[in-house]
């Protein structure tokens, strides 16, 4: 239950207009979403911004299959959005919050990032912690010589458990 509240807070923090309305608005939206999620999940879902329109790529913390599934469900991500997280978990296991950088390397190995694209990294820590950063690509990506996906990126996406 606290994980759901954390994701509600994240939704509010990255909402495009939350900063313009000030800190009180963010706290208000969180409280409303929390109240609705207890009795009416559909009402709480109406407060979820469309992150797939805000960012071209997303690297979400892939601490386990349950984490990926919950994040995808609560934030409304399509299966293609969580593909890098699943592939990273499959290939490297749970390496804590550094997984988001393995996901970035996955995007680079697949040559998916173009100049101007926005990439959102979202990682979770112990307890009630979340770290979020947005990057803007300065140039088209390609795999570096030391990319951890070199030689194996072509095997993904695969039918992952």
Automatic annotation (TrEMBL):
GO terms for molecular function: acyltransferase activity, transferring groups other than amino-acyl groups. One of its GO terms (biological process) is fatty acid biosynthetic process. The keyword Zinc does not apply. Residues 1-20 form the signal peptide. Keywords: Signal, Transferase. InterPro entries: 3-ktacl-CoA_syn, ACP_syn_III_C, Thiolase-like. Residues 56-136 form the Beta-ketoacyl-[acyl-carrier-protein] synthase III C-terminal domain. One of its GO terms (cellular component) is membrane. The keyword Transferase applies. PANTHER family: 3-KETOACYL-COA SYNTHASE. This is Beta-ketoacyl-[acyl-carrier-protein] synthase III C-terminal domain-containing protein. It comes from Aegilops tauschii subsp. strangulata (Goatgrass).
């Amino acid at each position: 239950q606290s994980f759901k509240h954390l994701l509600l807070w994240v939704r509010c923090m990255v909402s495009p207009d939350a900063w313009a309305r000030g800190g009180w608005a963010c706290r208000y939206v969180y409280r409303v979403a929390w109240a609705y999620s207890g009795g009416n999940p559909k009402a709480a879902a109406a407060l979820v911004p469309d992150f797939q329109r805000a960012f071209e790529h997303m690297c979400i913390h892939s601490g386990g299959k349950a984490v990926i599934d919950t994040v995808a469900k609560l934030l409304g991500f399509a299966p293609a959005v969580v593909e890098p997280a699943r592939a990273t978990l499959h290939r490297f296991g749970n390496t804590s919050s550094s997984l988001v950088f393995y996901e970035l390397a996955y995007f680079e190995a697949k040559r998916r990032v173009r100049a101007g694209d926005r990439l959102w990294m979202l990682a979770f820590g112990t307890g009630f912690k979340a770290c979020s950063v947005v990057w803007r690509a300065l140039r088209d990506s390609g795999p570096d010589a030391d990319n951890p996906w070199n030689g194996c990126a072509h095997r993904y996406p695969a039918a992952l458990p």
